[in-house]
Amino acid sequence: MMKKYLVLVFIGLMVLTGCSQKKPEPKKEPVVEVNETVVEEVVVPEVSVFDWQQNDELIKQGKAAKMVVVKAKRVLVLFNKEGDVLSRHRVSLGNPIGTKLKQGDKKTPEGFYGIRDIRGDKKYYKEILNDYPRPVDIKRSKALGFNPGGGITFHAQVPWNWDGRGDDHTLANDWTEGCIAITNHGMDTVLSMIDKNTVVEIRE
User: Fold this and answer.
1) In DSSP terms, which residues pair with 153 in a beta bridge?
2) Domains in the chain, start-ordered, CATH in brackets?
3) How far apart are CA 129 and CA 151, in angstroms?
4) Residues 50, 201: Cα–Cα separation, whole Å
5) Angle at CA 202, nearest 5°, toward 201 and 204?
6) In this structure, is the dihedral angle defined by the CA atoms of residues 43, 47, 51 and 55, taken in order, positive or negative?
């Protein structure tokens, strides 16, 4: 009887001891804070050879096979026969929209032209005369009942502006009668690289 009693007491103690024990708390994992910085990609517009960065930019000396004017960008770019850029110049025009159709419309003709003459000019320092109007220009204008006009040149600045201090003023607006105006410094750079065999291309 005493043995049974001791066994029961022992079992009771075991039960009480087991219930009174606290369950071990789960192990906490260390919290690692992550700072995520979102970097927005900045889209840089692609710069082409026809985007001027300054009024006159000499890239390298050489013989120019082609002079290209892009009217919408107000730029003149000289290329050698390999297609390398020699120089880039900011320009002013007259009426920049559309090709020339008639005398007095102040528009600059579009297309391919040759150089007829390179000469000094009392009013505009120096100038490059192209061979507008070509037969195709004459035919188009006459079909519309117009006189195609002529005397389209690349020219430089008026005398009061020859010292270079007014270059930005010269190029800030379109002011010619349809010709293409550049700075005197730019004209000297262009004349050092072209001759009468240089092709002139004028784009819209």
Assistant:
1) 129
2) 92-195 (2.40.440)
3) 7
4) 13
5) 140
6) positive
